[in-house]
Write a structure and sequence with these properties.
Blueprint (H helix, E strand, L loop, with lengths): L19 H23 L10 H6 L6 H22 L12 H10 L2 H14 L4 E7 L5 E7 L10 E7 L6 H4 L3 H8 L5 H9 L1
Antiparallel strand pairs: 1-2, 1-3
Length: 200
């Protein structure tokens, strides 16, 4: 059985950028629902319930066809949100230092260019989805977006930083203004966690 991981801060910790009510509903309702639905999908397949999220998502095509969509959406949702909480912290923001900063500069030209590319991916993702900084299969950094709860590891892309642009992530505070949410979010980015994943 998959369980909701502990949130590493209080619901109001990311105010004023992410409001406490959105945080609480996002974590206790939306994230919990992905977990409940994943557990339900695996109920009739006790052998699969022993697999890790990573195994389920990277071996999706080998799963029984009847549960592939449910696992894709809900294991993806659980995986993405578990990382998303860690990618934010109180008094976050700024820019990374060290080798990650250098590689961002070498890949995108500058941090500002990277940020612009990431923001464009987030703004132009139609409907619900995520924007990402990933390490691609050739080892290079890349900015992409995915639809719904698709996890980048399904396609062999290692997620280093991701932003949830589902309306449930911002609508209470920002309504239709997704770009304002995206700009505000950079103030809470936890670069220490990004660097940990980068150095793995
Ligand atoms: Mn979400």
């Amino acid at each position: 059985m998959f369980k909701l991981p502990k949130l590493p801060y209080e619901y109001g910790a990311l105010e004023p950028y992410i409001d406490a009510q959105t945080m609480e509903i996002h974590y206790t309702r939306h994230h919990q629902a992905y977990i409940d639905n994943l557990n339900k999908a695996l109920e009739a397949h006790p052998d699969l319930a022993k697999k890790s999220l990573e195994e389920l998502l990277t071996q999706l095509k080998q799963l029984p066809e009847s549960i592939q969509t449910a696992v894709r959406n809900n294991a993806g949702g659980h995986f993405n949100h578990s990382l998303f909480w860690q990618w934010m912290k109180k008094n976050g923001g700024g820019q990374p230092k060290g080798p990650l900063a250098d590689e961002i500069k070498n890949t995108f030209g500058s941090f500002d260019e990277f940020q612009k590319k990431f923001n464009d991916a987030a703004k132009t993702r139609f409907g619900s989805g995520w924007s990402w900084l990933v390490r691609d299969t050739s080892g290079k950094l890349a900015v992409i977006s995915t639809a719904n709860q698709d996890a980048t590891i399904m396609n062999g892309l290692q997620p280093l930083l991701g932003l949830d642009v589902w309306e449930h992530a911002y609508y209470l505070k920002y309504q239709w203004r997704r770009p304002d949410y995206i700009n505000a979010w950079w103030n809470v980015v936890n670069w220490d966690r990004v660097i940990e994943l980068y150095e793995k």
